Amino acid sequence: MKLKHNETAFTRRKFCKTSAMVGGGLLAATLPVGVSAQVAGSDSIKVALVGCGGRGTGAAIQALSTEIPVQLVSMADAFQDRLDQSLTNILEEFPDDKGKVSVPEKNRFVGFEAYKAAIDLADVVILTTPPGFRPQHFEYAVNSGKHVFMEKPVATDVPGIRRVLKAAQVAKEKKLNVVVGLQRHYQTSYNLIYDKLQAGAIGTITAGQVYWNSAGVWVKDRQPGQSELEYQMRNWYYYVWLCGDHILEQHIHNIDVANWFIGEYPVSAQGMGGREVRTGPKFGEIFDHHFVEFVYPSGAVIASQCRHQPGTMNRVTEVFQGTKGTIDMSTNSIKSFDGEELFKHNARKDPNPYQVEHNRLFASIRDGEVISNAENGAYSTLTAIIGRMATYSGQVITWDEALKSDKSLVPANLSWDSQPPVMPDEKGLYPIPVPGKTKVL
Ligand SMILES: NC(=O)c1ccc[n+]([C@@H]2O[C@H](COP(=O)([O-])OP(=O)(O)OC[C@H]3O[C@@H](n4cnc5c(N)ncnc54)[C@H](O)[C@@H]3O)[C@@H](O)[C@H]2O)c1
Fold first, then answer.
1. Band (52; pLDDT cuts 50, 70, 90)
2. Digit-coded pLDDT (tens) for 383-405
3. Neighbours of 416 (CB within 10 A)
4. Å from CA of 363 to ligand 1 middle
5. pLDDT of residue 1
6. Which atom of ligand 1 lies nearest, measured to the CA of 131?
7. How far apart are CA 49 and CA 71, in angstroms?
8. How does strand 147-150 pair with strand 108-110?
9. pTM higher than the cut 0.90
10. To bridge 171 with a disulfide, which of 48, 176, 215, 382 should be the other Cys (CB 3.0-4.6 Å)?
11. Among the atoms of ligand 1, which is closest to the Cα of residue 56?
């Protein structure tokens, strides 16, 4: 399937051209109707934060740090302590400009339904919960006519992907901006190399290797008195319904670069994986390594590997071989096959792509333009899900059969009395996928 680059493209040149035009009157005059009405009154775009953890706190600070008048007006989290800590951290960033952060007690919402009330109060919504909840939150935000910044991955299962794709279409019809936190699309080095690739620097990509090999991430210990659901929500990284496994949660960045640079989504995947080092109850049910071959319609093959094992080789990057030369994103360089360096970029002074994402989002809202990242976010998430299906099952998984899957991992209506979809045995261990036996479709 071909990527529609015109839909995911950001408006870099336009942004540069118009970024000097900020001013209350101009801002109100150029905003879409729903937003301009709000801005005309307060001169600020109102933002809601849903999912007040590490990334959400960072994203809110970035939203408040663009050159556009933006005010954080509401927050929602499953847990009160996470919301309180996030608000403290955000306030600390703006000691001299407290008006930017105006979240009175009545605008702080806690629990599974908290997102609705927070979203209702805003023009722009930041969605940064664990990805299992993203489809539900994105759908509500779009149906409510809000612009969205949402983190990757955008779902953990295929029914969630279809829900995001449907909402992405509605967002386009309503001319709502949607930026997805696949920040390499907003990173100077990736865009420079992509432009060279488009100009024919290495010919056509025939193969590549993409990596997220690291020691792993945080893990939370079970606390006395916690229900199984609360424990899984706190330790969400290790449960597939919440996180999707690390092939989605982190490695999606590298897989998405492969899709972007090749200009297609894969037709099929096959691979292998398991857990050798990260075993035991607190590591839930996810694998600690995956290796997948993705085959693209053009015939290109991408070898994708991600590993969470301390003491092993660390590598997070992408490498591509074309008909005329190679790209190595670890050095931001392009070489011919005889080793001649055709291009190299020194990224030391490049802007922070996490900030650029928000600069572009708010500039696009101000200028009445539309960024539509949701469809690509959904398809790159689906690519990673297909990789996971391949490693869990040991089978060849095709794009078309995966996209039809009705296997839903996320329960429809959760409350604190609910039992999560996976439960531990008497030793505290969870069922782990077994290649050759586990059915994923
Ligand atoms: N683009 C990047 O480089 C990048 C970096 C880090 C994280 N992320 C993404 O951001 C998301 C969040 O990651 P994080 O590191 O901030 O995790 P985190 O655990 O620090 O934060 C998640 C927050 O969401 C809250 N939450 C959980 N379920 C909720 C619900 N139903 N409603 C409201 N709040 C809920 C949690 O209580 C927590 O405060 C993930 O999708 C992750 O992949 C992206």
1. very high
2. 999 999 999 999 999 999 999 99
3. 11
4. 25
5. 74
6. 41
7. 11
8. unpaired
9. yes
10. 176
11. 16
Written as six digits, the tokens of 283 are 């590591």
> Nearest residue CA, atom 38 of ligand 1?
53
Contacts 24+ apart (CB under 8 A), 15-22: 15/359, 15/360, 15/363, 15/364, 18/363, 18/366, 18/367, 19/67, 19/359, 19/363, 22/67, 22/68, 22/366
Protein residues whose CB sits closer than 6 Å to any atom of ligand 1: 50-56, 76-79, 82, 112, 114-115, 128-131, 133, 151-152, 181, 183, 233, 249
From 151, 237, 246, the mutation candidate for ligand 1 (largest count of ligand atoms within 8 A of CB) is 151
Give the Å distance between the CA of 136 and the centre of ligand 1: 15
Tokens of 328: 């190595």
Long-range contacts, 276-279 (Cβ 8 Å, 24+): 276/309, 277/308, 277/309, 277/310, 278/216, 278/308, 278/309
Please give the single-letter amino acid code of residue 430. Answer: Y
Q: Is the pLDDT reported for residue 207 higher than 90?
A: yes
Would strands 70-77 and 108-110 be described as parallel, antiparallel, or unpaired?
parallel
Mean pLDDT value across residues 18-30 = 34
pLDDT over threshold 90, residue 237: yes
Q: How far apart are CA 169 and CA 103, in angstroms?
A: 31
Among 315, 176, 160, CA closest to 241: 160
CA of 172 from ligand 1 middle (Å) equals 25
Give 392 Cα–ligand 1 centroid separation in angstroms. Answer: 24
Concatenate the DSSP letters of all residues of 57-113 into one string. Answer: HHHHHHHTTSSS-EEEEEEEES-HHHHHHHHHHHHHH-TT-GGGB---GGGEEESTT
Let me know how many helices (H) and strands (E) the chain has, helices first.
Answer: 17, 15
**One-letter amino acid of 414:** L
Are 53 and 44 spatial neighbours (Cβ–Cβ below 8 Å)? no
Please tell me the distance from the alpha carbon of residue 394 to that of residue 295, in angstroms, as a whole number.
Answer: 16
Band of pLDDT at residue 4, cut at 50, 70 and 90: low
pLDDT band at 367 (very low <50, low <70, confident <90, very high): very high
